[in-house]
Amino acid sequence: QVQLVESGGGLVQPGGSLRLSCAASGIMFSTYDMGWYRRRPGKQRALVARITFGTATDYADSVKGRFTISRDNAKNTVYLQMNSLKPEDTAVYFCNADHLFHNYWGQGTQVTVSS
Fold first, then answer.
1. Are 41 and 91 within 8 A, CB to CB?
2. H/E element holding 12?
3. What does the pLDDT profile of the chain (115 residues) look like in tens digits?
4. How far, in Å, CA of 50 to CA of 45, rounded?
5. Residues 45, 36: contact at Cβ < 8 Å?
6. CA separation for the pair 29, 115 (Å, rounded)
7. Contact 82/9 with Cβ under 8 angstroms?
8. CA nearest neighbour of 95 among 1, 3, 12
9. What angle do CA 72, 73, 76 make, to 5 degrees?
10. How would DSSP label each residue in 45-68?
């Protein structure tokens, strides 16, 4: 079975940092494009960052310069380093794995940015 398990979410003050992790199993991880999406309160789920199997990256304008996506193929894990967090970053963050006909989602992890 395919599983994407996110971790690292929590409560953080504005300006703080968190690192999210997504551990994948049941897929040939190195062949998949990986991404982080988020669903903010009252908003639709939207792309935050993605990293291809070739390690090219892309970011939503709202997080450029603050968030960094990376992957460790040996550990079947993708990360999202989140710095300079803002209250508007509060959301449920989802891990996504995509390869041709295959697309999978994690369960989501809550990130709350509040003082």
1. yes
2. strand 10-12
3. 999 999 999 999 999 999 999 999 999 999 999 999 999 999 999 999 999 999 899 999 999 999 999 999 999 999 999 999 999 999 999 999 999 999 999 999 999 999 9
4. 14
5. no
6. 37
7. no
8. 3
9. 90
10. -EEEEEE-TT--EEE-GGGTTTEE
Q: How many CA atoms lie less than 13 Å away from 61 in the CB half-sphere?
A: 0
Kindly state the tokens that stand for 112: 């709350």
Tokens of 108: 């989501």
In residues, how long is the chain?
115
> Which position has the token pair 């193929």?
73
